[in-house]
Amino acid sequence: MQTNTQRDVRPILSARGLFKRYGRVTALDNADFDLYPGEILAVIGDNGAGKSSLIKAISGAIRPDDGEITLEGRVVNFKSPLEARDAGIETVYQNLALSPALSITDNMFLGREIRKPGFMGTVLRKLDHKAMDKFAREKLSELGLMTIQNINQAVETLSGGQRQGVAVARAAAFGSKVIILDEPTAALGVKESRKVLELILDVRSRGIPIVLISHNMPHVFEVADRIHIHRLGRRLTVINPKDYTMSDAVAFMTGAKAPSEPVAA
Q1: Most CB atoms closer than 10 Å: which of 44, 204, 215, 256?
Q2: 88: left (phi over 0), alpha (psi -120 to 50) or beta
């Protein structure tokens, strides 16, 4: 349900009438989306509902056949995830997109390394490892990840929760406007999942809005401010987790129950 505050605030990221077809299969069918500043918006839906296509469209991984996406009120047409990233949208995919053999610092700066000032950096292309190490340690400290003692250790030596923490820290460090998290607690144990949820809340407290894609209903209802329910290629409704139960959400997802308000941004 839309609050009075949301009616007065413009969404930071919005989509209207998105269509995406793969041959005879329609993945997005007039799909809408709204993410407001400073919120955690969970996106849930049954398998094949089109939520992955929605997230890929707003993060630049695919280009919709029709429709409009706006970021801070400006229409955007991302041709790649790199363009979305440059615009301030960071995505943490389920596979984390980390390079296991590289260090934590190297993974934090993958594709955006800092070079030494002057001749050493501009001509010889030398990297400023000291500056990158300092930045990486600061970002890990800000998110309470200092159980990682050596930021030069290979990512493959970290636990699943620590790897997720590095990926989230990287997103928080460079995602200036929006962070998208795809199943961040999948395949994690109870203790590590708890730490990731705390990280998500910590990032939100810094004012960065988060899109959380998850099948874990308890986690969704614990941290989400609103829940976007996707069904049959479009937004079915958006609910406040305080007003509905997990059983209600699952019933809406599967079509066993129809929401009283079919579309509520």
Answers
A1: 44
A2: left
User: What is the CATH classification number for the domain harbouring 33?
Assistant: 3.40.50.300
pLDDT digit string, tens, across residues 118-154 = 888 788 888 888 998 888 888 888 777 656 668 888 9
Residue identified by tokens 């874990």 is 216
| φ, ψ of residue 14 in degrees (nearest 5) | -145, 150
Residue 108 in domain: no
Number of domains in the chain: 1
Check whether 233 has a pLDDT greater than 60: yes
User: Which SS3 state, helix, strand or coil, does residue 165 take?
Assistant: helix
CA distance 132 to 113: 8
- The whole-chain average pLDDT of the chain stands at 87
**pLDDT tens per residue across span 235-254:** 999 999 999 999 999 999 99
Is residue 135 situated within a structural domain?
A: no
Residue 180: beta bridge partners?
Answer: 91, 211
Helix orientation angle between 160-174 and 190-205, rounded to the nearest 10 degrees: 10
Domain that holds residue 38: 4-88+175-254
CA distance 98 to 166: 9
- Alpha-carbon distance of 130 to 134, in angstroms, equals 6
Q: At what angle do helices 160-174 and 129-142 cross, to 10 degrees?
A: 110
At 48-67, the pLDDT tens digits run 899 989 999 999 999 999 99
User: In this predicted structure, what is the pLDDT of residue 265?
Assistant: 46
Q: Does the residue 68 lie in any domain?
A: yes
